[in-house]
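W.,

You were right to be curious about this one. When I first looked at the sequence I had no strong expectations either way, so I just let the prediction run and decided to look at it fresh. Below is the sequence, 322 residues in total, followed by the output.
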Amino acid sequence: MNKEYFVDYVKIKVKGGKGGNGCISFRREKYVPKGGPDGGDGGDGGSVILEGDENLMTLLDYKYKRFYKAQDGEHGKGKKMHGKKGEDLILKVPLGTVVIDSKTKEIIGEILSKEQRLCVAKGGKGGRGNVHFVSPTNRAPKICEKGKKGEEKEIILELKLISDVAIVGLPNSGKTTLLNRLTGTSAKTAPYPFTTLTPNIGVQRDSNLRRYTLCDIPGIIEGASKGKGLGLTFLRHIERTKILLILIDGASDSPLKDYEVLIKEIKSYNPSILDKKKILVVNKKDLKEFKNPFKENSIEISALKGIGIQTLKEKIEELLNE
């Protein structure tokens, strides 16, 4: 996905609609003092609601527009007519969106499933009309309530991609090439570090035609957990994956050291990630410099030439079925 279009962190302001005012009104009937009160209630203001959309992969829609307000409720009317409720404002977000209160830094909620909804700014309550204020000592009240203001807050939307398989490795280990080979995508590859600046997403089907997603996480380097290189920007995206595919460059100077760096950085960021199912894959089997210190604990492949890809697909399917 192009960096310009992939946005996984935004800050926006949301405001619920104001409740409508109650009405002061009196019936026009003979022998009834001042006609009798019949002022209706104001309608409640609409709320701002987030809704999960499985077709979205970015928060780009919220990068340029930063303020969202739901509709106000209508004022009450005579003849006990209540004002119309303000319409809710539904904001579509990708699955995996975490919602955080900008001031308190508390997590308000998370959107994890299709059409799941989360109210982030509740609309104000409509005011009561004068019909509610009749008493034995005040048969013709000239009072009503004003509508309440809607909630207003600044929130952070942080996207943590949900994928079945996350491909992690050092720069130039062949992550994007492997994703392209597994899913038939055509993400950009090049022989220099940090070619991939945003996560690439691909979709594959297993032997039973069940759909699963793979995500190529931009290169992790030593010190990434402390913000070095692309740092923490994309480490968050491996938190919600089911399977960790650790890709090692078999033609590097020290594949074993590369593996140790990866494990160390992931552990420093969030140790629980290492409790996930893992597949260790050693890439570039087609090169004469290839070496594999992991032997039977790994799968040897060449993402470029397609060597070992079928074995890898079968292993992924096996773990997903578990």
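Here's what jumped out at me. Helices lie at 61-64, 175-183, 232-235, 255-269, 309-321. And, maybe more interesting for your project: Residues 255-269 form the longest helix (15 residues).

Coffee later to discuss?

I.
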